[in-house]
Design a protein that fits this description.
Blueprint: H1 3-26, E1 34-37, E2 43-47, E3 56-70, E4 77-89, E5 97-108, E6 113-124, E7 131-143, E8 155-161, H2 165-173
Parallel strand pairs: 1-8
Antiparallel strand pairs: 2-3, 3-4, 4-7, 5-6, 5-8
Length: 182
C-alpha cells in the first residue's frame, strides 16, 4: 500500500472517530422525563341532570400522550408533548361547538409542581358525528435542571383535562359512559 493511500485511510478513520465522539457527546445524559395522565383528570363528562347517557352535554378523554426531549451538558431539558384526545357531543349538547380545556404540568418526580399551564381546544362537531378526535402538540416545554448530573428521570410531565370536583369524584368512582362508535 502506498503512503498516500495509507494517509487517506488514516485520515478517514480519524474523521469517522470524531463524528462518533461528537454524536455521543450530543446524546441525552439520561432518559427523558416520564409522561403520565392523571387518572382522575383523564376524562370529563358534563351532565345536564342525572349521571346517565341521555343527560350528557359534552365529554372528553385523553387517549394517548407522548414526550420527546433533548438535553446536553448543563442546559435545561427541552421537551415536546403530543396529546391525542377524543371529544363527544351528547344528547343534551347546546350547539355544535364547544371549548374544552386541558393542562400540562411539570413536576419534580413525586414532589412539587414546577409549572402548570392550561390550554383550550375549540372543537366543532359535524352534525352527523358525535365524536371528534384531535391531536395537540406543545412544541417546547423548558424543564430547568440544577446541573449536568440532573437527569430527566428527576422530573415528570403530567397531563389532565380541566375537571370540576364533581367530575373528578365521578372519575374516581370507576363509572363509565361512552358513546358508541358510529
Amino acid at each position: 500500500m502506498n503512503k498516500a493511500l495509507a494517509a487517506a485511510l488514516l485520515a478517514a478513520a480519524a474523521l469517522s472517530g470524531c463524528g462518533s465522539t461528537k454524536e455521543a457527546r450530543l446524546k441525552n445524559p439520561a432518559p427523558c422525563p416520564n409522561i403520565t395522565v392523571l387518572s382522575e383528570a383523564a376524562r370529563m363528562i358534563d351532565f345536564a341532570g342525572e349521571e346517565r347517557l341521555e343527560d350528557i352535554k359534552w365529554s372528553a378523554e385523553v387517549e394517548n400522550v407522548s414526550l420527546a426531549c433533548r438535553y446536553v451538558a448543563d442546559k435545561p431539558i427541552e421537551a415536546s408533548v403530543k396529546i391525542s384526545m377524543a371529544f363527544g357531543k351528547g344528547p343534551k349538547a347546546d350547539g355544535a361547538e364547544h371549548q374544552f380545556a386541558y393542562w400540562v404540568a411539570v413536576t419534580r418526580t413525586n414532589r412539587e409542581v414546577i409549572e402548570k399551564k392550561e390550554y383550550l381546544v375549540p372543537v366543532e362537531f359535524d352534525n352527523d358525528e358525535a365524536i371528534e378526535r384531535v391531536e395537540h402538540e406543545i412544541e417546547k416545554i423548558i424543564i430547568p435542571r440544577k446541573d449536568e448530573n440532573t437527569s430527566g428521570t428527576n422530573f415528570e410531565v403530567v397531563v389532565g383535562l380541566l375537571v370540576t370536583p364533581q367530575q373528578a369524584i365521578y372519575n374516581r368512582s370507576g363509572k363509565s359512559l361512552k358513546f358508541p362508535e358510529l
